[in-house]
Specification:
about 300 residues, TIM Barrel, ten-stranded mixed beta sheet
């Protein structure tokens, strides 16, 4: 256990691509395999690296760290997870059940539009609809996930636009960047968790839609025999991305903890006051070891 760090650190990765797939070049959080291994070797030297379930169970999290991945990009199962298993290091992958079953990740559709420089064309296509006024060209990525825009509706609009612009082949290619169930690795060092069914902004949804996202995602996991965590990882992970229903439905689904992504570490016990679900903090890893070291020190000092 590190005497240098005062908080418990939960690292969050998304892609570990050697080369980012065509269409996803814009705004995909990615750490190359070489940098990933360098970061994890450093992590192991500074912290006691434990499974997420063990991290949750230990009251004093000082000097502990755990490794998590969101969205289950297919590259994880070639570039990251096998190596972690070789190194005898535990990890947790939070997946979206609809995406594992073949649906296209709606944020990857947004990245495709950005890579094709079609933001203005998208806004023009829907210019007579009131909701489109919330999205500005220069803020297309962020504005398209605003809380006031129902994510499920935006996803449908993305499909309409992309098909209308004859981008079916590009859409088909996007089905291959997320892992399928055949890619998932069954190993005692690998746990899987619920990241909702479709990765929508939960607070943008109706209560019925949000319940379905959380409960059906957990039901999918529960019907499999993989090692699981009872934690629920909030899509996008910000304070604005949740509301009281999020905790209520997570508890209904049988979850015991909710993971946020607010660039913070864990120094004291946080609980939702109504459901009493444990709240844990994570931070996204920067692309290089030097940046990770700087960020980890900064977050630990301000915790």
């Amino acid at each position: 256990m590190s005497a240098e760090y005062l908080g418990g650190h939960i690292l969050l990765y998304h892609g570990v691509f050697e080369s980012i797939p065509t269409g996803l070049e814009s705004r995909l959080h990615n750490v190359s395999p070489v940098d990933f291994r360098e970061q994890i070797r450093w992590l192991r030297g500074q912290f006691e690296v434990v499974s997420l379930n063990d991290f949750i169970a230990v009251p004093d999290k000082r000097g502990l760290a755990t490794i998590t991945f969101d969205d289950a990009y297919a590259d994880l199962f070639t570039n990251a997870i096998p190596w972690l298993i070789e190194e005898k290091l535990p990890s947790t992958i939070f997946l979206n059940s609809n995406l594992i079953d073949g649906a296209i990740f709606w944020r990857d559709k947004v990245r495709l539009i950005l890579s094709k420089k079609l933001e203005k064309a998208f806004l023009k296509y829907f210019e007579h609809e009131k909701w489109i006024q919330s999205i500005k060209t220069e803020r297309f990525y962020k504005d398209s996930k605003k809380v006031e825009l129902n994510s499920q509706f935006v996803d449908q609009a993305l499909d309409t636009f992309l098909v209308e612009n004859n981008l079916e082949d590009e859409l088909d290619a996007l089905t291959k960047v997320i892992a399928t169930e055949d890619d998932l690795i069954d190993n005692p060092l690998v746990s899987y968790g619920n990241h909702s069914a479709s990765h929508y902004v939960l607070s943008s949804l109706t209560p019925d839609q949000q319940r379905k996202e959380i409960v059906s995602g957990q039901a999918w996991l529960n019907s499999r025999e993989y090692r699981r965590t009872s934690s629920f990882a909030v899509p996008f992970g910000g304070t604005k991305d949740i509301n009281p229903n999020t905790f209520r439905f997570a508890k209904e689904a049988g979850c015991s903890a909710v993971l946020m992504s607010r660039r913070a570490v864990n120094t004291m016990k946080q609980k939702d006051p109504v459901t009493e679900l444990l709240i844990l903090e994570r931070y996204m890893t920067p692309p290089t070891l030097e940046e990770l070291v700087d960020l980890s020190h900064k977050l630990d000092r301000i915790a």
